[in-house]
Amino acid sequence: KHHARGVIIFGSDQEVAGVMRAVRRNNATGSFSWIGSDGWSARSLVSSGNEAEVEGTLSVQPQANPVGGFDDYFLSLTVEKNKRNPWFVEYWENHFGCRYPNSSLTPYNAGTTKECSGEEQLTVKNTQFEAQLQFVSDAVMSFAYAFRDMHRDLCEGRGLCAAMNPIDGVQLLTYLRKVTFTGLSGDRFKFDDNGDGPARYNIIHFKQVPRGSYAWTTVGAYIEGELSLNMSALQFKLEEPQPPSSVCSLPCLTGQAKKYVEGESCCWHCFNCSTYQIVNPADETQCLDCAWGTLPNDDHLHCNDIPEVYIRPKSWWAIGAMLFSSVGVVMTGVVMWVFVTHHNTPVVRASGRELSYVLLSGVFLCYSITFVFVLKPSTVVCAVQRFGLGFCFAVVYSALLTKTNRISRIFNAGKRTTKRPSLISPRSQLCVCLCGVSVQVVVTGVWCVVSPPRAVHHYLVREDNFLVCEASINTSYVIAFAYPIGLIVVCTVYAVLTRKIPEAFNESKHIGFTMYTTCIIWLAFVPIYFSTANNVELRITTTSVTVSLSATVALVCLFTPKLYIILLHPERNVRQSMMTKYSTVRNNLSSSSQRVDSGTQSEVFPLDYELHEKLRTMSGGQPRPTSSTQTCPASCPLPEHRCGPTVTLTPSPTPSTFNGPVQDVPDVQL
């Protein structure tokens, strides 16, 4: 282990002294920090002559307190007083360097001729006591208390009984584990669950204080599981307060995980977590993936939420879309105001007042939906978007389809039959339009039940966190557009079929131009919508602007010609102004056997009048004169009652004819 600097040595003082000499020979002095066992701690044999190598050593030494009364007892002993100890004579001879009379020859007296007098005296100055005497005392007393307790239980304190003769060692061990007493040193003694005596150690430290002077000092203690250490007293090297570093691997940098070397608990390799991972707080050897919508912080310790991205009303994209829609709302309001204030004028009546109001309502909704698109997506907002997007188009194009269908049926029916077409009155037309809109309501309602609207987080890449309505991230919006697209296609077909209608009925041409332009707008929108998936603001802005453009096309193409007459040329907003144009229409319709009395041309607006007359003829009613001041010439091909300029017409009294004068017949509006 090339990086190891801390060394724990279990050994005797002789062995450790040899290690220190080897360190010096290899010029490794100061390279290691030693942790010593009690077998060589504070032993002069180790430190003498090896001070520089031993410096900084931390070691443990069993904590032992003096045994009360033992010093006095031992110092009072003599050979004569301690004959029960056969080894005491040898100790006496070795201690005083003499040979006791009549003693046996031993290695301790063989080298001396001096004879002991018996008057020698043991004193504190010439006697050194063993520091660990407490452990001997506690060991002896442990057996004494174990014998006492065993004798009390088995023999009831009455001498040596058969139960203890001989003594059962296993049974004695049971009593020995249970002993508890206060020893001669004053410390409480008992065995722990493992059968060990109390763990009491002093932590000693070999350091240089001052320079050139080395000594063992106590810097802490370990008492029965509790460690106390005076860190300020530690000094591994003189004038180097920082402890030495002894590691197999350096700590990993912040955001790095560990991969331990097989079989090692202190050696590892550091590796970086990937871009979207953090270090597992519970296991520093693993990296965890951040959830979608979150990214690791700079330290790769936590996953932070990515800010939600959605169009905000204060963004320039939203401001532009709302400004465009606001202008459209104002324009729609102006048109509505003009139509209401000129409600009974010929131009407004000829345009079909009821369906025009429905159409303006749909245009207003198209502009208004933009303000919903720029709101923060939520369940309510997504529901309004889903319903409103298809509904506003259904209102607009249902009204247009009703108009074009009505025109086509009236003129086509005149070529085939004289029977009046059904469902062409204003009330009928409103019912037809309402039925068309209700289809979209049902489709959207079923869609919301099957797939409830909700706001979701959409992630194109890991760095994205788009907050969008769920329907906008897939093709679900096709459901909202499917029915309006069908209406657009049918309206466009009708616009093509009615393009050759006489000029007086030229609103069909305006409707046709509206539908052609709308198709072009939406064909351009589709690729733009799908190519802006990674830009939420642009996609929403494109959608709302496209909706507003469709509404603008309908508003401008269908209502500008009418506003032009109403506001700029009010003199043309009368029935007589269309007489010249009406004459052309009459000639075009003569092939269908349609005739109109010139005396009534001034009574009804020509556009409406021609249809009224057409419908009356198809209904089977024959006009008849009520008064006449002129007779048709013989060369006139018309019936006599249609020739004079002063003839007035009334419907024939048949069940199928209209009741009342012609001008009271419900308007046939385009």
TrEMBL record:
Membrane-crossing segments per the record: 316-340, 355-375, 387-408, 429-450, 477-498, 510-530, 550-569
InterPro entries in alphabetical order: ANF_lig-bd_rcpt (IPR001828), GPCR_3 (IPR000337), GPCR_3_9-Cys_dom (IPR011500), GPCR_3_9-Cys_sf (IPR038550), GPCR_3_C (IPR017978), GPCR_3_CS (IPR017979), GPCR_3_mtglu_rcpt (IPR000162), mGluR (IPR050726)
Subcellular location: Cell membrane
GO terms for cellular component: plasma membrane
Record membrane topology: Multi-pass membrane protein
One GO molecular-function entry: G protein-coupled receptor activity
Composition skew (Polar residues), residue ranges: 624-633
Ranges of biased composition (kind: Low complexity): 645-657
Domain G-protein coupled receptors family 3 profile: 317-582
Entry keywords, A to Z: Cell membrane, G-protein coupled receptor, Glycoprotein, Membrane, Receptor, Transducer, Transmembrane, Transmembrane helix
UniProt-annotated stretches for the region Disordered: 617-670
Family: Belongs to the G-protein coupled receptor 3 family.
Job description of the protein: G-protein coupled receptor for glutamate. Ligand binding causes a conformation change that triggers signaling via guanine nucleotide-binding proteins (G proteins) and modulates the activity of down-stream effectors.
Stated name of the protein: Metabotropic glutamate receptor type 4
